[in-house]
Amino acid sequence: MYYLSRVEVDVQNRAKIKDLTHLGAYHNWVEQSFPKEIATGERHRHLWRLDTLAGKKYLLIMSESIPDFEFLLKYGVTGTIVTKSYDGFLDKIHDGQIMRFRLTANPTHTITRPGKKRGKVFPHVTVTQQEKWLVDRSEKSGFELVKQVGVNDLNETQTLAFKIVERDWPMLHRNPGRAVRLSRVTFEGLLRVENAETFKQTLVKGIGREKAFGMGMMTVIPEA
């Protein structure tokens, strides 16, 4: 079972959300919203991201159980929690389906260093690099990015029907006294489902790195 939950962040109450100063604080909020998992020691990965819609900020969570509403309201607005089963939606996904998507991710690449067994991870920083990062991951994630031709383009040049709508560098406190900034990029556009089973796993497991800190979550809406 998978569930999609949303709550409005109470940004108007600064005293209430004074702890939400970095991604680690949001991560803790999400994890604490599943007290039964903490009690049993059976922890599951929870995908989450922050969305801003019509001037309001929302926390969106993908999980295998329903979050505890009392804990979600620690920083949330009363009466704004919505939770629904995601399984019925997943069951309807099929190959060839066109969907509008939104993805917040951490585009990175790894550089191998001489004499080192493990490469070092670096963020992609340009729009071109970040767009290519998504293109390179589309096939193994079960989808293809839709190509389009401009209405007034006499040459009928095909371009990919997606764009980057937000880019920033939020703070993350990994350890006391050690803070880093992560590259956070939000993509929106059109995709075509190429492998439905793989794509479903992408929706519930995420894409890329730093999933614990609000990255990797893709949501989709079928095109009519």
Briefly summarize what is shown:
The chain is of the alpha+beta class and 224 residues long.
Name a few traits of the molecule.
224 residues, alpha+beta, 21% helix
The largest sheet, given as strand count, sense and whether it forms a barrel, is: 5 strands, antiparallel
Mean pLDDT equals 92
Name the shape in a single word. globular
Q: Report the C-alpha radius of gyration, rounded.
A: 19 Å
Q: How much of the polypeptide forms β-strand, as a percent range? A: 35-45%
Distance between the termini: 26 Å
Give start-end ranges of low-pLDDT stretches.
none
Helix content: 10-25%
Please report the number of helical segments. 6
Structural class: alpha+beta
Number of strands: 15
**H-E order:** EHHEEHEHEEEHEEEEEEEHE
Structure characterization notes:
The two termini are 26 Å apart. Strands 5, 8, 11, 14 and 15 form a five-stranded antiparallel β-sheet that branches. This protein has a four-stranded antiparallel β-sheet with strand order 2-3-1-4. By secondary structure, it is of the alpha+beta class. The radius of gyration is 19 Å and the shape is globular. It has helices at residues 23-32, 35-40, 69-72, 87-91, 127-138, 196-205, and strands at residues 3-8, 47-53, 56-63, 82-85, 98-105, 108-111, 120-123, 143-145, 147-149, 158-160, 162-168, 171-175, 178-181, 184-193, 217-222. The protein contains six helices and 15 strands. Helix content is 21%, strand content 37%. The mean pLDDT is 92.
